[in-house]
Amino acid sequence: MEQLLTQLDQNLKELYRKAVDADAVLDDLQQQGHGRYQHIFPAGLFQVQSNRFLPYLAETAEQISAIRQTQQFNTATLENIVKQLQQLHLTLAEFRTALTK
């Protein structure tokens, strides 16, 4: 269980810096009149709806924290957390790639 939580924490740490950087770019784009969208991810995978990455990351971190506090989880919760982390990794990588083009 501790190894699983450590791996999830490592993912959060890796994503945090990328999310902060991406949100800064999104702030700049919005100030330039671009990026007029309501949310990054469609409804379903995340409960939060935001036009920045950090709220999505915070939601995932809260779920991991809840597992740590209770020392229990069910398979569905873990699967959802893994899907959220995968989607964040993928979307941030695609965002970075789109910026370099």
Structure commentary:
- The protein has three helices and no strands.
- It has 101 residues and is mostly helical.
- It has one domain.
- The longest helix has 30 residues.
- It is elongated.
- The chain starts with a helix and ends with a helix.
- The mean pLDDT is 91.
List the helices and strands and how they pair.
Layout: H1 2-31, H2 54-70, H3 75-100
Helix pairs in contact: 1-2, 1-3, 2-3
Return the structural class.
Answer: mainly alpha
Largest β sheet strand count, sense and barrel closure: none
Q: What would the average pLDDT be, to the nearest integer?
A: 91
* Discrete helix count: 3
Rg over CA atoms, rounded to whole Å, is 15 Å
